[in-house]
Specification:
2 domains; Aminopeptidase i, Domain 2; Aminopeptidase; alpha/beta; about 475 residues; globular; single chain; about 25% strand; 9-stranded mixed beta sheet; 6-stranded antiparallel beta sheet
């Protein structure tokens, strides 16, 4: 009789003794990945570094004939330093289809404006423009770091990271003290702090130049120039991101969880990376996609809407087929099956009214499969079909993957999306499948280590089939 009923159980209770050790070792490696990859550029570089350590070669070396193109070949293709694709060539031709795990490595943040520097009341500040869906008030009164690149007049690229080393200074966005916040507290939460008020405080010591009208700003720029050799004009072409300072940390007396910036969606990308490293000679070509721009709609030449992935597959098919045709590319995508690897909101006991609990993922209960996303009436969603869901279910259950289903909150509460619809538009079978977590899109997010492990285990079983 009990087989007739569906009941979720904690994934922690389903682990073998060996797996318990694997959960914590995987989590430790993941924290290091987060610490060195706080931007999409840094994450892509770290994935490339680890891929090369695991026997992957560049797409350029393959296309130039430096590497024999054959089954089992491991290839990486990095797109403008901001996204990266890992491919393990299958025994069957690519036109037969691919098994794909696709995540993204950009996260909500603040970007510096192109003319960021200004001074007010002897405080030097930087203007920002927020990127992705954030609660703006959450970014005030936090230690913040600056990451990115500056291109100089002579086209030299200068890498900048300030605020991560223990000896570094950090930066700060001020908030209004409660004693003076009478008017502020009457506003809607979305208006507590306006986008134009997210200004980064970077200095307070004035220069000794009596002729300067902005002495603190001048002193700050002088210090920047001394260390990096760049001027204010160089910031016109810079790409600098403001992120929370500090490292990923264990949470809980039992160390069962991780608090960090950028879980969305570096946790699924990390699980996907680790899983494809364990794919060697697959029947169908295995692919790990780690993309940029998901938080702002996946557009642009490094997002999933770009032609980059399709172009790479076309190049590889051209090496494989005697008489290249675009039909081979179309067939490849039509025959592909995809796990859109992105996080989802776990049930939060502090905010029960936002969720339909039976249809929401629970933290610590394993990998979460989301049949559809979208907003309210499933607007702009990918809605996976029952046949593919059943196939994914059987893969997971035959490989001991603890999984659950879940939507993004109550029907009329809000909604969201992933890159799932993009590959589905090619005709591929796609379902969202990722890690449930708390405080999504906050500067610090929270997840359970066992859910990371089940994502890795699930992605690996999918790619290896």
């Amino acid at each position: 009789m009990t087989d007739l009923l569906y009941k979720r159980d904690s994934a922690w209770l389903k682990l073998s003794e060996e797996e318990k050790d694997q959960v914590f070792s995987l989590a430790d490696a993941y924290k290091l990945f987060l610490d060195v990859g706080k931007t999409e550029r840094e994450s892509a570089d770290e994935i490339k570094k680890q891929a090369e350590q695991n026997g992957y070669v560049s797409i350029e070396s393959v296309l130039s004939g430096g590497q024999a193109f054959k089954p089992g070949l491991k290839v990486y293709a990095q797109n403008k330093g901001k996204s990266i694709i890992l491919i393990v060539v299958g025994k069957e031709n690519i036109s037969s289809g691919m098994n794909i795990v696709g995540g993204h490595i950009d996260s909500p943040r603040l970007d510096l404006k192109q003319v960021p520097f200004y001074e007010d009341s002897d405080i030097a500040m930087l203007k920002t423009h927020y990127y992705g869906g954030i609660k703006k008030y959450q970014w005030a009164s936090l230690p913040l770091a600056l990451h990115g690149i500056v291109m100089t007049k002579d086209n030299k690229k200068v890498n900048i990271v300030i605020g991560e080393d223990e000896t570094d200074p950090v930066f700060f966005i001020s908030d209004l003290l409660p004693h003076l916040a009478k008017d502020q507290m009457q506003k809607k939460a979305s208006e507590f702090i306006e986008g134009e008020d997210l200004n980064l405080i970077i200095g307070n010591i004035p220069s000794e130049n009596e002729d300067s009208k902005e002495k603190v700003k001048e002193n700050v720029l002088k210090l920047i120039n001394e260390k990096y050799g760049i001027t204010e004009k160089d910031f016109l072409t810079a790409e600098l991101e403001v992120v929370p300072a500090g490292k990923a940390r264990d949470v809980g007396i039992d160390r069962s969880m991780i608090s960090a910036y950028g879980h969305d969606d570096r946790v699924c990308s990390y699980a996907g990376m680790r899983s494809i490293f364990e794919v060697n000679n697959p029947t169908l070509t295995a692919v790990g996609m780690f993309m940029d721009k998901e938080e702002v709609g996946s557009n642009g030449n490094t997002g999933s809407n770009s032609m980059y992935f399709e172009n790479i597959i076309a190049e590889l098919i051209n090496l494989q087929e005697d008489n290249y045709s675009d039909l081979y590319v179309r067939r490849s995508f039509m025959n592909s099956k995809v796990l859109s690897a992105d996080v989802n909101a776990a049930y939060d006991p502090n905010f029960k009214s936002a969720y339909d609990k039976p249809n929401t993922g629970l933290m610590g209960y394993g990998l979460q499969v989301t049949k559809y996303t979208g907003s309210r009436g499933k607007s702009s969603c990918n809605d996976a079909n029952a046949e593919f869901l059943s196939e994914v279910r059987n893969i997971f259950e035959s490989n001991g993957v603890v999984w659950q289903t879940g939507e993004l909150g109550k029907v009329d509460q809000g909604g969201g999306g992933t890159i799932a619809y993009i590959l589905a538009n090619y005709g591929a079978e796609v379902v969202d499948c990722g890690v449930p977590m708390l405080s999504m899109h906050a500067p610090y997010e929270l997840l359970s280590k066992v859910d990371l492990f089940m994502a890795y285990k699930g992605y690996k079983s999918f790619l290896n089939r």
